[in-house]
Every structure is written in C-alpha cells, then in structure tokens.
Amino acid sequence: MKNLKIKQKILLLTVIPLILTVVAVMAVSIYQIRSLGSQELEQIRITMMAAKRESLKNYMEITETAIQSVLKNVANQNEAQERVKTVLRAISYGDEDGYIFALDYRGVAKVQPDQPQLEGQSLIDLVDANGVHLTEALIQAAKNGGGYVSYLWDKPSKGRAVEKLSYAIVLDEFDWVLGTGFYVDDIDDAVLLKQQEVDAKVQTTIILSLLVGISILVLVIIFSVWFSNRALVKPIRDLAESARQMSLGKMDTVISVNSNDEIGELADAIGRMQKSLNVIFKKLKQMPRK
C-alpha cells in the first residue's frame, strides 16, 4: 500500500467494496431462485402425484363399470371371465404404458397386457429389486378395500424396470384383484424439465448480475478517476510544484489551490509558510552587510 499512488488507493477503496457488493447480491439472488425453485419442484411433484393417484382411482371406476355391464349379460362364469379378460385387454391409456392387470387371490396372472407370456403363471413369489413382494402387496391392498403399492416394474416404452405406483381393488365375482398404475419416472421427467428451467434462470441471473456489475464498475472507475484527478491528484500536484518552486527561491509563486477540505488546509499552511519566508527574506535583505 505504501507504494501505491493516491489515485490507485482511491480506486481500490471504491472498487473492492463494489465488487463485494455485486458478489453478495448475486449470491443472495441465486440462493433465492434456487430456494424458490426447490419449493416449486417439490410442489409440482406433490401435485402431480396426487393427480396421478386420483386418475388411477378413476380408471378403476371406469373399469368396474365396464365389467359390470358384461356380467349382467352373461350367466356362465367361464364365459364371463373370458369376456372380462377381453374388456381388460382392450382398456389402455397413456400410450402403451397404461393398462389394467388382473390376478387371482393365489397370485396367478389372469390379464397382463404388457407381458402376455406371464398370464396363467403364478406371480405370488415375485420380488422386485428393492425386495418388495409386489404381488402379495397388491392382493393385500385390494382386500383392504383398495390401496396403492409402489414397486419396480418393466416399462414397455423404455424396456427397463422403473418405479411404478399401482392401485388395486377386488373383483368379488371372480376372487380377482384388478389393478392399474403409472410410472413415477413420468413425474421425474417433468420435475427434471422444471429443474432445467430453474438452472436456466440461475444462469441468466448470473449473466445479468455480471453485466450490471461490470457496467457499474466501469462507471465507478471512470468517475473515481475523474474525481480523484480533479479533486485530489491535480491540487496535490499543484501544491507540490508550488513547494518545489519555493525551494528554488521563487517566493512569488502563486498557490492556486482553493478548497474547503484537507487539501485546502494544506494549501493555506503552505501559503502562510510562503508569507513567513518572504518576511524573513525581506528582513535578511534589510540587514546591513559587514
């Protein structure tokens, strides 16, 4: 700091606080955007999950209505079961990922549209990668008056197992369990899309903050340079030049600095010193020479 000129010191004292302020404002803005974004993402997930749950119930109500219309017109149970299977296989929604499945109370698959090869097989011992005994859980949820079960299951459109939430009910006429579900990764995709929007907002905020900060910084530097030259550097240089002229014996040097600050006080002090020196020099000139 000792080797820095006044102009440089002024710039440092001006620029550093400004930079810190811009960084602080940017940090607070980014934090607020991310915080609000996280809350919004969580709300989106909750809202979509609630809507999906309600949709599953609605699909099962529609399915029950369709089944009851079939059962009214068919007396033979075997024929009724085959017609119900036909109805269930015909119901689809959400492209190829939405379908209705059916199990009996022993866990034997009666209708499995996504994997027809499983029909007729017992799925009672089926366990997903997370250790969920999904068939047992679905049967139990249905017998309890209808309920939801979360487990991993192959998604036709992706060809791999993803988390699925299913809603199951009983079909008392056949001692079957009917169910349908949705894949949670649909919600994850929607949340991810929103997360990308939040990240884009953060990036935009950073860019705008930098542009505004740099613009303000440039203006402050220009003003500081102008102000320091006009109010500090030039007057000090003028005083230094006046003092140098006086040291060379030019006691009639005009001190042109006139201000009400510390530099003005210094100029007054030099002016008084100049007058005192002039008085001393006059007295010396008037003294007789020996």
UniProtKB/TrEMBL annotation:
The keyword Protein biosynthesis does not apply. The chain crosses the membrane at residues 206-227. It comes from the Bacteria. Residues 230-282 form the HAMP domain. Keywords: Cell membrane, Kinase, Membrane, Phosphoprotein, Transferase, Transmembrane, Transmembrane helix. It is found in: Cell membrane. InterPro entries: HAMP_dom, HssS/ArlS-like, sCache_2. One of its GO terms (biological process) is signal transduction. It is a multi-pass membrane protein. This is histidine kinase. The lineage of its organism: Bacteria, Pseudomonadati, Pseudomonadota, Gammaproteobacteria, Oceanospirillales.
